[in-house]
Write a structure and sequence with these properties.
Shape of chain A: globular
Number of domains of chain A: 1
Largest interface: A-B, 29 and 22 residues
Structural class of chain A: alpha/beta
Distance between the termini of chain B: 29 Å
Radius of gyration of chain B: 34 Å
CATH superfamily of chain A: P-loop containing nucleotide triphosphate hydrolases
Number of helices of chain A: 8
Strand order of the largest sheet of chain B: 2-3-8-5-7-6
Largest sheet of chain B: 6 strands, mixed, barrel
Strand content of chain B: 15-25%
Oligomer: heterodimer
Structural class of chain B: alpha+beta
Number of domains of chain B: 2
CATH architecture of chain A: 3-Layer(aba) Sandwich
Largest sheet of chain A: 6 strands, mixed
Helix content of chain B: 55-70%
Order of helices and strands of chain B: HHEHEEHEHEHEEEHEHEHHHHH
Strand order of the largest sheet of chain A: 6-7-8-3-9-10
Number of helices of chain B: 13
Strand content of chain A: 25-35%
Helix content of chain A: 25-40%
Number of strands of chain B: 10
Distance between the termini of chain A: 37 Å
Order of helices and strands of chain A: EEEHEEHEHHHEHEHEEH
Chain lengths: 246, 409
């Protein structure tokens, strides 16, 4: 690795799906480098390949051809178990529909990744409480998802993504189910994580949301159309700002 | 991630759906309860039969005069006594396969105490009779061989007779009863023996030395033994050999040529009892197999619910995989969920089964026979059912592709 700050290196990655007799070429050769602490927004219409790219970056799927270095390590040929370990330790996921376990407290939801990394009960509790603190939801630790607002649920999901101290947070349309006010709240949180050195990659089709990223990658037909760095818009929301910096 | 952690994850998932978990476990509860209750029922019935056999006496044969297989033309034959006292002596002394033999001459007679009367079966016999019938004394003692030889006027009362003549809990030993207006001294009261399989009260009887019986009740000792002979076969050779020996002896003594029918018959009561025991065994095996089927149905119920649960929780599985669960974690989680359901159901089933067994024992007035090994087997079996029927859904869950699972609506 010539540059240690390059956390993600994709080289000419393709992904083909077989749907019956038809082969769908979801990615046609994508090369991408992402540095530590970058806030990257991947944009594109549906079918552009942005979700496939996300799945490969998230180690949920393996490229058909090409190589993927994550933290200096080639991961395109790892086993299911090794990929699971990577997802557990290095990556954190945030989904559009939150995907919290129902009838389970916020704290227990946040603890979940640590169960799979073998942390002790006390350590899980301690780290989950700290993660909830980072998203300013300590006072909601005992609440079940259905007792929380959409924005709060997404913050619990972000706490869950953060709890194992990942290098990268992958967010798939994280604001898709939120109103614009709470969307800004969530983006402010992501910006704060970027300042703490965590790489955030988010998939969105809303230009409004992509404004807050430091870099925007546009996709079309399985290829990168454009890749530009920008001065991110500051996610200003007085309460959110206070909560995050508190 | 250890088993205990997985168990807590599974338990939490089950508690999220309490009603469904309970209904699923219900299949196993009923299955295990049925197995335990049915085995207890079978054991109770067996014990009942064993008790009946024990009260009849062991290796018991009864020699009767006359042929029970005789046709209509020989109708009067059975009433004619054909067995002599010498025949009895020969059976007692000449056959090694016969342990003991006792004559039983019976007549229905009214007995009187000072202020009560009761009509019962009075039998003339020897002290060996009580050995053959395996029948101890509760109070007093038997009359002795010298009582038989001397023709003493002594009597042993059955429990029912003692109660009817002297009232419950009285001690009639040493008191006098009158049979045909002749005073007899009560030597002993036989222990309670209960009922025969046909419902006859064994305890409604009284026994006197056969010499006294012949002289005072029947009217003179005749050449023919005007009654039946109870025989106990020696345990080492069994009843079949004794039956053959007695048949050969009596045919020889009665000068019956080959082809001529026996002028006596021998009943083997142990055989009847054994047949009864076998029938009970067959029925309990049948009941048990039905119970096992219901346990298997309970297992299928678990599989069904686990499959529904896997489908319903596809997204949950996807999330768990995305945040780092390995396939084996998902497999164990669902397997332990099934196992927890099955074992919890098994334990509840034991409680229900014990309760049912107790109710059945009371209803049929059987002894309650709980076999601890059956309880252990039932729990192990329900665990096996849990693993067996939980494996497929769990495997299915663990093979899900996280991307598809996350996208699942």
């Amino acid at each position: 690795m010539e540059n240690p700050k390059e956390l993600i290196i994709l080289e000419n990655v393709t992904k083909d799906y077989r749907m019956g007799d038809v082969v769908v070429r979801a990615l046609r050769g994508v090369s991408l480098q992402v540095n530590e602490g970058e806030f990257l927004a991947v944009m594109g219409a549906s079918g552009s390949g942005k979700s496939t790219l996300m799945n490969i970056l998230g180690c949920l799927d393996r490229p058909t051809t090409g190589t993927y270095f994550l933290g200096g390590k080639e991961v395109s040929n790892l086993t299911r178990n090794d990929l699971a370990r990577l997802r557990n330790r290095t990556l954190g996921f945030v989904f559009q529909s939150f995907n919290l376990l129902p009838r389970t407290s916020a704290l227990e939801n946040v603890e979940l990744p640590l169960i799979y990394s073998g942390a002790s009960r006390q350590e899980r509790r301690r780290r989950a409480e700290r993660a909830l603190q980072r998203v300013a939801l300590s006072d909601r630790a005992d609440h079940h998802p259905n007792q929380l607002s959409g924005g709060q649920q997404q913050r619990v999901a972000i706490a869950r993504a953060l709890v194992a101290d990942p290098k990268i947070i992958l967010a798939d349309e994280p604001t898709g189910n939120l109103d614009s006010r709470t969307s800004v709240e969530v983006m402010a949180l992501f910006q704060e994580l970027g300042r703490q050195g965590i790489t955030v990659i988010l998939v969105t089709h809303e230009a409004d949301i992509a404004r807050y990223a430091s870099r925007v990658v546009m996709m079309r037909d399985g290829l990168i159309l454009s890749d530009r760095r920008q001065q991110p818009a500051r996610a200003v929301l007085v309460e959110a700002e206070e909560q995050v910096s508190a | 991630m250890n088993v205990l952690e997985t168990f807590f994850v599974a338990a939490r998932a089950l508690l999220r759906n309490k009603t469904r978990s309970f209904l699923t476990a219900l299949g196993i509860i009923i299955g295990v309860a049925a197995v335990i209750a049915m085995v207890a029922m079978g054991e109770g019935a067996k014990a009942n039969v064993a008790e009946a056999i024990a009260s009849m006496g062991t290796n018991l044969l009864i020699v009767l005069p006359g042929s029970t297989s005789a046709g209509g033309a020989r109708g009067g034959f059975g009433s004619q006594p054909t067995i002599t006292w010498d025949d009895l002596k020969a059976i007692q002394t000449e056959l090694p396969s016969v342990k003991e033999a006792a004559p039983v001459l019976t007549s229905a007679v009214q007995m009187l105490s000072e202020d009560q009367n009761w009509t019962t079966r009075v039998s003339g016999t020897t002290p060996e009779y009580f050995d053959i019938r395996n029948w101890p004394m509760e109070l007093g003692s038997r009359f002795t061989q010298s009582d038989v030889e001397g023709g003493s006027k002594t009597v042993i009362l059955g429990q029912t007779v003692a109660e009817k003549l002297f009232g419950t809990n009285a001690n009639p030993v040493g008191q006098t009863v009158r049979i045909k207006n002749i005073p007899f001294q009560v030597m002993g009261v036989a222990a309670r023996k209960g009922q025969s399989a046909a419902g006859m009260d064994y305890d409604d009887a009284a026994f006197v030395p056969y010499t006294t019986f012949a002289a005072k009740v029947q009217g003179g000792l005749l050449k023919y033994l005007n009654g039946i002979i109870f025989v106990s076969a020696s345990a080492s050779v069994g009843t079949e050999r004794a039956t053959a020996d007695i048949t050969a002896l009596l045919r020889d003594r009665h000068h019956l040529r080959a082809g001529v029918e026996d002028d006596f018959s021998i009943r083997n009561l142990s055989e009847i009892a054994n047949a009864q025991e076998q029938a009970v065994g067959t029925i309990s095996a049948l009941l048990l197999s039905i119970a096992l089927v219901s346990l298997a149905v309970g297992g299928i119920g678990i599989m069904n619910i686990m499959l529904v649960s896997v489908t319903e929780r596809t997204r949950e599985i996807g999330v768990r995989m995305a945040i780092g669960a390995r396939p084996v974690n998902i497999l164990t989680q669902f397997l332990i969920e099934a196992l927890t359901l099955a074992v919890a159901g098994g334990i509840a089933g034991i409680a229900a089964g014990l309760l049912a067994a107790q109710r059945l024992a009371v209803t049929f007035s059987w002894p309650m026979k709980i076999r601890p090994d059956v309880i252990v087997v039932a729990v192990l079996f329900s665990g096996l059912v849990g693993i067996g029927f939980g494996l497929y859904p769990a495997y299915k869950a663990s093979r899900l592709d996280p991307i598809d699972a996350l996208r699942y609506e």
